């Protein structure tokens, strides 16, 4: 499988835009520096990079989707820990998706259709579905069928989340069937995830479809099972080599957690995460976290409690563990994992637990935990096979035929994937999360609020969506969150 370096693709993007800007304008209203047509090998990497930055960057993950499932914690400025969201951030996330990566990927799809290039259309469709599931899982009902038309429809209607999921699942099914096309189309150096390896894209498509199908397990188990079984039979990830990830080759293209480390130091590890890893003698603890500075040279990991409004009296930032240096001090080129083999195996273990597929949930569980432990082997961060065996043999880790055990290990494995950890916790209400002492709302937040601009520019459709969903607060559940 071939992976394309971000720097090389970005260089191609920059050169192409520079060349495009040299064409003389044909009208006084034309901007000579704004190209009127951009090829898919330039649009796809932009859509990938922008969407990954939005979903997995330090804004959304460190302030929202990573703290509410209690992976990370805000040590300072803990508004979101208390259930207070800032309107500017809700605005920024919404605009980043709808005015950025989603618009770009829709152009990729349109070009694939126009040129009858199945692989281009299919990859664009898959990535669009990936972005939209992040968006709808955060906000609930959003513009979907009428979105991305620009000036043709500046006030699109909101689709129900159920209809959005129906659309995404149908699109993924169609796209998977198109990815074997021998039409010869590709993205040049622009495919940052799989380097025009259509079989890898097909496995990612089916894996994502399994994720979306499982999201419906509590609200519509019949559809969930049918969709999951079909995607499972079609074939998802087969090993960690299939992981969907964005590589960062180094300056000026670096992991956002490393860039954040250079200027800020006010986020740490949740006490829930540290205590769980410590209690299980989990070899991922020294990868996920750094020892607390106050105890050095002794190695002590100290998590901070979520849902508090300040540091304890007499304590400072030095008392608490930070995110592991694999992502921060040493993390300039650490990849962002978009979807992993371990997650797919955990999904299959859960499906086998329900009896949806004919497979041994214990074997799938063991394979899932192993895949998570081995995930960073290429970077020297994996335990030895013997250590993995010892870990799996512990009574608190060994499969015990309960859903709780599967979901706990899945929660641990979703480290650095805040959007999925938050969504999965909302879906199944596992693992159990203690609410912090300074939470000012009735529960840990379970959705984003809509941006103020929608009230100004699309109020009729927004008001209808809010009324249909029964509210707009951080505690109002999205459609598939019924527990």
Written overview of the protein:
There is one protein chain. The protein has helices at 6-20, 40-56, 60-65, 87-114, 118-139, 161-178, 198-215, 221-234, 256-261, 271-279, 285-288, 341-354, 361-373, 385-393, 403-413, 418-428, 452-457, 459-469; strands at 72-74, 142-143, 158-159, 244-246, 267-269, 336-339. By secondary structure, it is mostly helical. The radius of gyration is 22 Å and the shape is globular. Residues 1-35 have low confidence and may be disordered.
Structural key phrases:
mainly alpha, globular, two-stranded antiparallel ribbon, 48% helix, 483 residues
Mean pLDDT: 91
What would you call the shape? globular
Q: What profile does the largest beta sheet have?
A: 2 strands, antiparallel
Strand content: under 5%
Counting DSSP H or I runs of 4 or more residues, the number of helices is 18
* Element-by-element helix/strand order: HHHEHHEEHHHEHEHHEHHHHHHH
Brief rundown of the structure:
The protein is mostly helical and 483 residues long. The chain has helices at residues 6-20, 40-56, 60-65, 87-114, 118-139, 161-178, 198-215, 221-234, 256-261, 271-279, 285-288, 341-354, 361-373, 385-393, 403-413, 418-428, 452-457, 459-469; strands spanning 72-74, 142-143, 158-159, 244-246, 267-269, 336-339. Helix 1 (6-20) packs across helix 2, helix 12 (341-354) runs antiparallel to helix 13 (361-373) and helix 12 (341-354) packs antiparallel against helix 15.
């Amino acid at each position: 499988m071939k992976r394309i370096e971000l720097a090389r693709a970005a260089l191609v993007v920059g050169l192409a835009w520079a060349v495009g800007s040299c064409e003389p304008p044909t009208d006084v209203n034309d901007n000579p520096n704004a190209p009127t047509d951009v090829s898919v090998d330039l649009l796809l990497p932009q859509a990938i990079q922008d969407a990954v930055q939005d979903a997995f960057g330090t804004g959304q993950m460190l302030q929202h989707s990573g703290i509410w499932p209690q992976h990370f914690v805000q040590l300072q400025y803990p508004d979101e820990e208390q259930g207070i969201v800032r309107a500017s951030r809700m605005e920024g996330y919404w605009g980043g998706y709808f005015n950025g990566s989603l618009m770009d990927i829709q152009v990729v799809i349109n070009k694939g259709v126009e040129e009858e290039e199945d692989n281009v259309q299919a990859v664009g469709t898959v990535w669009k579905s990936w972005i939209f599931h992040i968006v709808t899982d955060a906000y609930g009902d959003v513009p979907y069928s009428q979105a991305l038309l620009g000036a043709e429809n500046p006030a699109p209607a909101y689709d129900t989340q159920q209809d959005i999921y129906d659309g995404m699942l149908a699109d993924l099914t169609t796209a998977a069937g198109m990815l074997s096309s021998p039409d010869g189309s590709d993205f040049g150096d622009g495919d940052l995830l799989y380097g025009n390896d259509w079989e890898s894209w097909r496995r990612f498509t089916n894996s994502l479809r399994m994720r979306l199908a499982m999201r419906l397990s509590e609200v519509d188990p019949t559809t969930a099972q049918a969709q999951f079984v079909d995607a499972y039979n079609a074939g998802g990830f087969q090993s960690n080599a299939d992981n969907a990830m964005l590589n960062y080759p180094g300056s000026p293209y670096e992991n956002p957690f490393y860039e954040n480390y250079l200027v800020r130091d006010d986020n740490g590890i949740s006490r829930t995460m540290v205590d769980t890893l410590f209690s299980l003698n989990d070899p991922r603890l020294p990868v996920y976290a750094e020892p607390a500075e106050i105890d050095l040279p002794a190695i002590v990991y100290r998590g901070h409690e979520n849902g508090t409004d300040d540091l304890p009296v007499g304590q400072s930032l030095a008392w608490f563990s930070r995110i592991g240096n694999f992502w921060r001090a040493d993390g300039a080129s650490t990849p962002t994992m978009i979807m992993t083999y371990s997650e797919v195996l955990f999904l299959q273990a859960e499906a086998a637990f329900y009896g949806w597929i004919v497979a041994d949930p214990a074997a799938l569980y063991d394979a899932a935990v192993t895949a998570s432990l081995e995930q960073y082997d290429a970077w020297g961060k994996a335990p030895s096979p013997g250590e993995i065996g010892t870990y799996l043999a512990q009574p608190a880790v060994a499969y015990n035929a309960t859903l709780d055990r599967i979901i706990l290990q899945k929660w641990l494995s979703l480290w650095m994937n805040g959007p999925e950890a938050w969504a999965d916790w909302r879906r199944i209400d596992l693992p159990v999360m203690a609410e912090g002492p300074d939470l000012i709302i009735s529960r840990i937040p379970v959705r984003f609020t809509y941006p103020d601009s929608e009230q100004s520019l699309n109020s009729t459709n927004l008001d209808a969506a809010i009324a249909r969903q029964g509210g707009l607060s951080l505690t109002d559940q999205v459609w598939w969150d019924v527990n």
